[in-house]
Amino acid sequence: MAASSFNLKAPCHARSISLPSALHPPIPEFNEHLTRLGASEAASASISHRLNGLKDLHDCVDNLLLLPLTQQTLIQHSNEKWVDELLDGSLRLLDFCSTAKDALLQTREHAHELQSSMRRKRGGENGISSEVVGYLTTRKKVKKVIHKALKDLKGVEKKYSFSPLNKDPETETVSMLREAETVTLKVIESLLSSTTAYSKPIGWSLVSNLVRPKHVACEEATMIDLGEFEKVDAVLFTLIGHKTKSNPVHIDNVQTELRKLETSIQDLEEGIESLYRHLIKTRVSLLNILSH
């Protein structure tokens, strides 16, 4: 059987599992969640929704690792290269997931601090310019770390390939573990990318709709489709870069965008923390099985 490419851009399809479903209930459930994740990606579902889908998928992974057949297969083939690949993959997932966790935490904490400064000073942009610069400096550092992680992830996508497996029932569960790794990396990649999409200030005519009073923006109905991270970055760059009376920046609107960002990050943190715990459990299970 030819080595399967580790391609994060490939669509997610449920595998045709030859093992009896009645004897192995996690298998059809795994396929169902894998298909749903593929549909979520095709429909451009939110990252939070896809993280919830990963939780369900990794619940199935936990159950797969409890199957006697899976454990026997791993033990009998413990010297095979693909077993090492599973272990390496579990560690790789934890590394990327940890990077995402840290990036979200730092951004949320600094967004909260900036909100607090705005509430205390209430003096317009001149009173909080240093705090805004501090937030944007932190964002720049976080983006640098994320860009490196994305570069590493792209390198995995480009260079890595799984070792071939024999076409027999006992290795089907191994193929499922590989698929779980691939789709999980893909969602983590989407999460990391969503936090760094904004790179430089965009036109004032677009950003102004984010910072003017809501009734004005709604009347023009020209709100741009930006993610929460992008919106806040754009508004804050504008806050410290545009000080003309003709284009006033409304601090209340800036605070609104910061609150939205904080709420969005909290949702993402719940999903990524749940995933991280699952990934730790998976790695521990693999190590425990192979230690026998």
Q: Helices, strands, pairings?
A:
Layout (H helix, E strand, L loop, with lengths): L25 H17 L4 H18 L3 H9 L4 H41 L3 H35 L12 H23 L9 H8 L2 H7 L7 H14 L9 H40 L2
Helix pairs in contact: 1-2, 1-6, 2-6, 2-10, 4-5, 4-6, 4-10, 5-6, 5-9, 7-8, 7-9, 9-10
Characterization of the model:
With 292 residues, the protein is mainly alpha-helical. It is 73% helix and 0% strand. It contains ten helices and no strands. The longest helix has 41 residues. The N terminus is likely disordered.
Name its key features.
single chain, mainly alpha
Q: Name the average pLDDT.
A: 79
Structural class computed from helices and strand pairing: mainly alpha
Stretches where pLDDT is under 50 for at least 5 consecutive residues are 1-23, 199-225
* Strand percentage: under 5%
Q: Name the helix and strand elements from N-terminus to C-terminus, one letter apiece.
A: HHHHHHHHHH
How many helix segments?
10
| End-to-end C-alpha gap | 29 Å
DSSP helix fraction? over 70%
Radius of gyration: 23 Å
Specify the overall morphology: elongated
Major sheet attributes: none
Find the count of extended strands (DSSP E, 2+ residues): 0
Summarize the structure.
With 292 residues, the protein is mostly helical.
